[in-house]
Fold this protein.
Amino acid sequence: MRAVVVHGPGDVRVDERPLPVPGPGEVLLALEWGGICGSDIAYWKNGASGTAALAHPLVLGHEVAGRIAATGPGVTGLDEGLPVTVHPARPVGDGVLPGRIAGRTNLYPHVRYFGSAAFTPHTDGGFSEYRTVDADQVRPLPAGVDTQQGALAEPLAVALHAVGRAPSLRGRTVLVNGAGPIGSLVVAAAKHRGADTVVAADLSADALGVARAMGADETRDLARGETLPEDVEVVFEASGAPAALGAVLRATARGGTLVQVGNLPGSAVSAVLGDLVTREITWAGSYRFVEEIDDALLALRDGVDVTPLITHRFPLERAAEALSTAADPAARSSKVLLRLSSESSGESAGA
């Protein structure tokens, strides 16, 4: 079978790998669609994502969906041909957490995640024609949700987790700073969770167009001199840009909540943070998700439309071009999908 493998900085290849065989408690997936994430781009460009550095080649991809091709011994209730997506996280160890964070498995100290070099050997991702996974990581797609949409259940789960880190949004005005793929999904998640008005801000007019299509009621084009709104009770910072923090804190109402969903650098940065204290803002981090992938699938079933996010589609053999497109601001991309099989459900492929 073919797989998208990063061998080092700037070196991604479509390699031939042996067809995996499902063991006890496992299923074999015939994968159809995969979404390119920032971590995939980081491994390709830098040979590392955050503190996780490549020690050997790695199959990329953690946003995937496909169909069950076969089941291993002991697996029941998952039939061949069933369309599914995957929860890509697997805690390593006994799974016991301190009582104060009980159930928050995203905060477990050691987690194997699809397409991650955090451990050696690395955890291969799902940008391949086939992959075996533990049966309890499989999530069947609801009726009416195709595998192209299912590949976006994972990033939608990230957005829903972020929304869950804030007070109830019902009837509120919400600001989302940063309208990349995650920010635009936060827009959709906020509307789904009852926000009355969602304002999206970005430096890119193209990104703001996607945010509008995903449900933003208002947009602010910061590159054209437009400014953030004032006194917003709940703000989501999705750009991950330290330089944006001062303005975002100033936009947050006194006593309001700021949820940081955009990844901030792991190194020292300069940022204006004074309003965090003087405005008594609650600043909450948001990391991956727990079981919100189930909520994401229900949201997709109930009509949350993620298709405006998809701007480009490439076949697996053009993976390098797909990564380049996703990484290039001039390409005007939002979510770039890889077609992992020659016959995938959903729209036809092509850039």
Notes: The two ends are 23 Å apart (CA to CA). Residues 153-164 form the longest helix (12 residues). The domain at 2-154+289-339 is CATH 3.90.180.10 (Quinone Oxidoreductase; Chain A, domain 1). DSSP finds nine helices and 20 strands in the chain.
